[in-house]
Amino acid sequence: MSPMYEASALLQFPTARLRSPEIRNAALDLPVYRRAVATYISTDQMTRYAQHLGIDNRAPTVEMIRQSRTPGFWDRVAMPMAPLSREDRRQFGLQKAEESAVLLGVRLGVTGRRKDEVSEMIEFLGMYYSNTLIRARIRNWMLESRIDVEGARNLSGSEIVRLGLQNKMHQRRIAAMKEILVRYPDAARLDPRTTINVVSGERNDDDRVREERLLSPLAQIVASESAIAQNNEMIERLEREIYQRELLGQYFVAAERIADSKPDAFDLVSPLRELALSHFVVSNLGAEAAVQEVRLGIEGALDIFEAMPTQYGVRGSIRVHRPMRNEPAFLGVLGAILGGVGFAVAGHWIKLRRAARVAN
Predict the structure, then answer these.
(1) What letters, b where the CB count within 10 A reaches 16 and e where it falls short, cover 34-50?
(2) Do 211 and 226 contact (CB within 8 A), yes or no?
(3) How far are the Cα atoms of 11, 24, 170 from residue 227, in angstroms, in the given order?
(4) CA 142, CA 151: separation in Å to the nearest integer?
(5) Distances (CA, A) of 300 to 237, 290, 312
(6) Quick one: which of 116, 212, 302, 316 has the fewest CB in 10 Å?
(7) Cα separation of 260 and 355, whole Å?
């Protein structure tokens, strides 16, 4: 039997904030939406979400889950809405811009046998898509942050090794310059701005003898000591960043386990915030500022995610109507037309039979 009622609604997305950092930009573009739908939208996930809400035994929910098992269901019930369509650009001569890829929302549509049934189905579908997209944003933030943490930590480690090698070279230079000052005491009285020309004996491309200008031994000692001090400051800063990234990496490993156990995005932020408060504990007084910086960054991201559920929603755009094909007047007219066509075909067939008999 054909469905008697249809319900449609627009699940609105937040507007784009182009100059804001990515974490603060709650808008979705088409590739991100497609990736989230392909990863997280499924019948099993919908069933799990309905069980979490305690409505998996309600007739509208059971009907929705039953329909979700039919081929092509997800493409029928959810259609992304872009601000500019291909026809708009062709008609008004608009150029394809980056802003046109940001979605206005998703057009949702369901069918059912009763008016109250489709109303509840469309509300549940809107809640499910909102929850899924927000959970996808949080999971992507975790995964991307964890990858960045691992990559940046290795790069910082290699930079520390490079700076350590530079310090060894500067220390060898300092030792060599001190030996020169011991052998040539008068070199210590040279003006620091004095340069010494050293002929290497090699020739340049233009067949001239290559000369190098060097600072006095005392000036080179001071320059090397200054370079060592700067490198030590850089090493200390990099070690601080590695410590912060180790804390972040441990946090995101535990946060992923929490995200897997929570099907509802509304219940996900609070455990992540509690994890941040318990995980980022200062064990070393010297690392208090580093730990606090990381914790504040996590809490700032969680504040943004906590506000996202208020930015996604159907917002009173639900429309329930009866399809024209199920209206009594439409069915009567269709029946009259089909009856007339049937009578005409039957009459024509009778005429052909009579003509065949006369000819015989």
Answers:
(1) eebbeeebebebbbebb
(2) no
(3) 59, 40, 8
(4) 14
(5) 23, 16, 19
(6) 316
(7) 78
Residue 206 has pLDDT above 90, yes or no: no
Contact 118, 321 (CB under 8 A): no
Strands (E), 182-310: 195-203, 209-215
Residue 334 has pLDDT above 60, yes or no: no
The confidence band for 284, taking pLDDT boundaries of 50, 70 and 90, is: low
**pLDDT value at position 219?**
82
Q: Dihedral angle at the C-alpha atoms of 319, 321, 325, 329, nearest 10 degrees? A: -150
Tokens encoding 332: 């009567």
CA–CA separation, 285 and 91 (whole Å)? 65
What tens digit of pLDDT does each residue of 207-235 get? 565 666 677 788 888 888 999 999 999 99
Radius of gyration of the chain from its Cα atoms, rounded to whole angstroms:
37
Measured CA distances, 179 to 123, 149, 166, 170, 213 (Å)? 84, 45, 20, 14, 20
Would you state the pLDDT for residue 1? 46
How far is the CA of 214 from the CAs of 136, 180, 199, 300, 332, in angstroms? 60, 14, 11, 52, 104
φ, ψ at 319 (rounded to 5°)? -130, 125
Does residue 49 contact residue 64 with C-beta atoms inside 8 Å? no
What secondary structure does DSSP assign to 53-118, as a single string?
A: HT-TTSHHHHHHHHHHTSTTHHHHHEEEE-SS-HHHHHHHTPPP-GGGGB--EEEEEEEESSHHHH
Say if residue 131's pLDDT is above 50: yes
Q: Which of 20-34, 47-61, 78-92, 307-321 has the highest mean pLDDT?
A: 47-61
CA torsion sign, 55 to 59 to 62 to 68? Answer: negative
CB 312 within 8 A of CB 130: yes
pTM of the model: 0.70
d(CA 231, CA 163): 6
